Amino acid sequence: MDYLANITHQDLQLSKLPIVVNVDASSPVTYPVRTNLRYYLELFVPEFYQGSFISLTTLEGSEEPPQTLAGVTAYPGANFEIQDLLHGLVESCVPEFGLNEITLCETMVRPYYAKAIRKNGSVLIDEIILPSGFVYRGGFLESDYAAYKNKFFTSYVGSGRRFLTWKPNHATLRPDQPEYLGFITNFSPTPSELRLRVEITYEDWSTETITAKTLSEVSSMAVYVCPVGPTQLNLQARMNSAGEFVIRYKVWLSNENNERLSEERTYLVDRQPFRKVRYILFQNSLGLFDTLDCYGDGFETLRVQRQTAEQFRGYEYLPRVSERVINRVTGERELTVAVGYGRYQIKDLRDYWQDLFFAEQMYLVTDREHIPLTLLSDSYLADDDREKTVGRTLTFRYTNKETSYSRLPALIATPERPTGWRGDAQACELDQSTGLRNGKKRYGLLVKYYIDSGEDVKPRTQKPNIVGTEGYIPSWDSVDCTAGTTPFKNVLISQTSVYKRNNCAVGQVGGNWTVSVAANTYGSEVSQTDADGKAQAAANALDTQENANMFGTCIVPAPIPIGLTSACPTASTQPIFAVIVGSEEIITNTSFNSPTVRYAATGLNQGSYNLDIRVQYAASPFESFRIRIPSKGFSSAVLAGNQTYRIANISINWGDADLVIICEPA
Fold first, then answer.
1. Among 43, 270, 290, 332, which is most buried by a count of CB atoms within 10 Å?
2. Band of the pLDDT at 511, cuts 50, 70, 90?
3. In this predicted structure, what is the pLDDT of residue 233?
């Protein structure tokens, strides 16, 4: 097996689940009257695959009513749900009949960004471009939404490097059964190749590992469909040197260095003969296509409807002339199949078959095409404690109606007027994982034309320029598309990790580490906010327990020093300060303008504390001031007057930086 590649995953939004964008409320101080406030969200999407962004629509809304609890008022702002708009822009890709190469499904993922607009009546307050995101066509159970809404592609798919299916692992496949696995490249660094690796086990238990398929020019944030059935991998008749057939095999995806990018999937080859086997191809909840093998008894019925009319039989009323004639006959076919009664994982499969009932598309695999079906069965026994032998009966209707009967053989293709594809819509190519230009230029679209005359095919036929498809035009080097020419690049991100090291020696405690993303690592064609947002998302993804155990510090527990400094000028109308913890004054009154930090005699142990700052003036008018604690990100409101100001619930951890309280003029 290949060693794991070192990759960092990025999250996406799922189009079948809520996608909510919040626009911050306008300042209640500046706009105490809220009735005229209006909020807008303008949504931008690419015109085509990896194309430039265009405005899709602008939504209008009002802010949520302010919420007051225990004297504290919160202003939620305006919320916009955009999942329905985005869901219509992403599509699943039905595998082409006979597919045997790794292919890109360019319509499964689409980037987007939004612009928040705030107005007071008709007067513009501001416009803010929000960080961009990616939407993926798929969903999962609504009860899991709260936990996984922003973590599904990192904490589940990414952490397990999973293929995009709910089908149980170690599935059995018939030798001629088509099978597909979907994989998303939502990670960096982006590989230059995808290699479908296969470990084959023969009847004598000997093994060998091969690279079955290879795809070059891999795009980030894209979905790839991998054919993994025995026939698609040429394993159905493969034998080793001893003449033994394949009985099982494992598949996984690796990069150009044979470093593993995905999980392993194991398949058992079932050569047991059956009277009839049918294969149903259906779209799973994650938008890709799984295959259901139906080898139980099945039958097909034809129902017809006849449209009749009455006619005059003529003056003679001859007996051979019909008074009622049939104008049209329309037929509908129904297919009933049995599934189950398997030997392996049958209860896991029983649970998994529920996914079929949520499928939006399904097809019967024939000897020459995928025939669309509709599932008529509308109820499913998902669990039965008494059930020992698991089997289900499903009824489908052929989607397309019939008006005649025939059984024609497959037709050999005849020569047609030769056509080709030429490029259209040149643009700089982007690394989708970073947003930076990658030094190449590409055609975004291909237009079909007649080779003999050079004229466009009518009607005008165009498609995205995608690697592995007919007519694909590779990218080319261009000096105006280097990473340095990206319009917006991120600034340095440096932050203290949330996770702390937890594998220190006895007597030591783990500390944080500094998570950094270098400047110019991420870019954007849209805005500086978008570039910095990508870098921030990358920093958040690096903040894991695993990295904390590698880079975090181990220290001997020691009290954290606490100190006080004042930048207020020397004057009787300026305040002086003291610090009280519990009932003990640990730092006495400062003098005016004392920039040197005065420390308490003893520090604070790990825990949560209320810090009381006693403020005193010698004379009025009282000058205003503010209190800050930089290491805790705390800043008070503007204050003035003799008082004791409480900073509540300050958390102290072993290894924290010195807790320095800064008092300064407002």
1. 290
2. confident
3. 96
Distance of CA 342 to the CA centre of its chain: 34
Backbone angles phi, psi at 156, to 5 degrees: -110, -65
What is the 8-class DSSP label of residue 481?
G
Q: Whole-prediction pTM value?
A: 0.78
Residue 581 corresponds to which amino acid?
V
Query: What DSSP state is assigned to residue 75?
Result: -
Beta strand pairing call for 171-173 and 265-269: parallel
Cα dist from 370 to 97, 398, 638, whole Å: 6, 11, 70
- Helices then strands, counting H and E runs in the chain, come out as 7, 46
Which pLDDT score, from 0 to 100, does residue 264 have?
Answer: 96
Cα angle 580, 586, 587 (rounded to 5 degrees) comes to: 95
One-letter amino acid of 298: G
Question: What is the mean predicted confidence (pLDDT) over 544-556?
Answer: 91
Structure confidence at residue 660 (pLDDT): 95
Taking residue 11's Cβ as centre, other Cβ atoms within 10 Å add up to: 22
Cis peptide before 189 (omega within 30 of 0): yes
- As a whole number of angstroms, the distance between CA 589 and CA 272 comes to 89
- In a 3-state reduction of DSSP, which class is residue 305? strand
Question: In sequence order, what are the residues at sequence separation of 6 or more whose Cβ sits closer than 8 angstroms to the Cβ of residue 410?
Answer: 367, 368
Reported as a single tens digit per residue, the pLDDT across 563-581 is 999 988 888 899 999 999 9
Taking only the tens place, the pLDDT of each residue in 288-324 is 999 999 988 899 999 999 998 988 888 888 888 888 8
Which residue is listed with tokens 């807790």? 659
Classify strands 562-566 and 659-665 as parallel, antiparallel or unpaired: parallel
DSSP state of 561: P
CA distance 192 to 431: 11
* Longest Cα separation, the chain: 127
CA gap 380, 564 in Å, rounded: 68
Distance CA(647)–CA(627), nearest Å, equals: 9
Query: In 3-state terms, what secondary structure has residue 357?
Result: helix
Return the higher-pLDDT residue of 213 and 537: 213
Question: What letter does residue 154 receive in the DSSP assignment?
Answer: I
DSSP per position, 200-252? EEETTS-EEEEEEEEEESPPSS-EEEEE-STTTTT-SS-B-TT-PBEEEEEEE
Residues paired with residue 393 on neighbouring β-strands, in sequence order: 338
Q: Are 214 and 193 in contact (CB under 8 A)?
A: yes
For residue 543, the tally of other CB atoms under 10 A from its CB is 16
* Torsion angle, alpha carbons of 497, 501, 502, 508, to 10: -130
162 contacts 182 by C-beta, under 8 angstroms: no
DSSP annotation of 479 reads G
End-to-end CA distance of the chain: give it in Å, rounded.
63
114 SS3 class: strand
In this structure, which amino acid lies at residue 444?
G
**DSSP code, position 533:** H
Question: What is the CATH code for 8-140?
Answer: 2.60.40
Q: In DSSP terms, which residues pair with 578 in a beta bridge?
A: 614
